[in-house]
From TrEMBL:
The organism's place on the tree of life at top rank: Bacteria
Keyword Cell membrane: yes
Protein source organism: Croceitalea dokdonensis DOKDO 023
Keyword Phosphoprotein among UniProt keywords: no
Membrane-crossing residue ranges in chain numbering: 16-37, 49-69, 81-101, 113-142, 154-174, 180-201, 222-255, 267-285, 297-326, 379-403
Keywords, comma-separated and alphabetical: Cell membrane, Membrane, Transmembrane, Transmembrane helix, Transport
UniProt subcellular location: Cell membrane
Protein name from the UniProt record: Transporter, MFS superfamily
Pfam short name (any one): MFS_3
Major localisation: membrane
Amino acid sequence: MENKIDPYAALRFKEFNIFLGVRFAMVFAWSMQFIVIEWQVYSLTKDPLSLGIIGLMEIIPAVSIALFAGHIVDQKEKRSLLVKCILGFSVVSMGLFLVTHPSVEEEYTSKSILYTIYALVFLGGLVRAFIGPTIFSLIALIVPKKIYPNAATWSSSTWQMASVLGPAFAGFSISWMGVHWSMCIIFAFSVLALLFLFQIAKKPILNPKIGEPVFQSLKDGLRFVFGSTAILGALTLDMIAVLFGGAIALLPIYAQDILHVGSEGFGILRAAPAVGASITMLGSTRFPLHKNAGKKLLWAVFAFGICIIVFGLSTYFWLSVIALFLSGAVDGVSMIIRQTILQLKTPDHMRGRVASVNSIFVGSSNELGAFESGVAAKLLGTVTAVVFGGCMTLLTVGTTALVSPKFRRLDLSKDVADHDQQ
């Protein structure tokens, strides 16, 4: 069957191409914004713990209301809900644009500015709780079920491409025009995403249980996720690896104090993992990863841990860039397999709730990992904290391979073939 795979199947649908434009603009803006915030906060405090607090301020609301957000997504029309999410992000970016104005820095203390930034990041966490499940659900309403894996790959590739360009551009824009006007560009991209989104028609609500009690809805969603070995195994493995391998949060320290490469070098370091992941994802449109998915996922996360250790020990800029590039390449394998599992195994009426659980396990682990890295760097030192995280990732892979032979033998070939026949 693999010789009949059309690598451009999803791109033959006009609305899906528009959707990719929306996703690119939003991820570019969001990833650029996070980089600018990291740079500004560390410049204000020179404290690695403050970088961890950024992640904590986003994870608290994102995790607290994630399940409730999934219930809402399954009950509401997806395009209209995504419009509201983007408007919420625009409010946050405009707030950051105002608080980073030079006149604000002259009139208010660094502590006041810092707390305001944390508050806006917290608000962004509320938006994030809804935006992930909404996007995941909307994809399934734009393309036919038989090309879900292909659509998921292109969507993830677009996400990674924006994650490459957003951080890289952020590093250079900080140098060229400063933090304040960098925030203005971020706001402009959120407006662009809205313009694209209005070209997508409203979609039907496929949930047969409209008006279902909230707690019953959440219970059903959790029961489904925890009853699926494939979904639970993939989410757990990736969550723990990201949690302890969160060296990315410490990049401002490496750029400023260890490698001494400034904001331009910071942008390159931050973009390197996404470049690697993008190459992996584009390649996967022609060379699918569903066969022997369990073994491939375990090896990918193991290689990720090795790359993090190399990066942590490196004092050479280009060696650090290569290590981060390779970490992104193998992490791309993990992301593709996880998204394929979610798309193939999740019923249409549960997509919002399953995506919310995914955001708790994986998405929020990035922020929790940032907090863990900040605390570890404060207590152990930056290099030791990064190496420790890489070692914990290796330990996680070994433990998973030993205690879960069923996951190790996971193969998605039959699921893909079944969907091709629909």
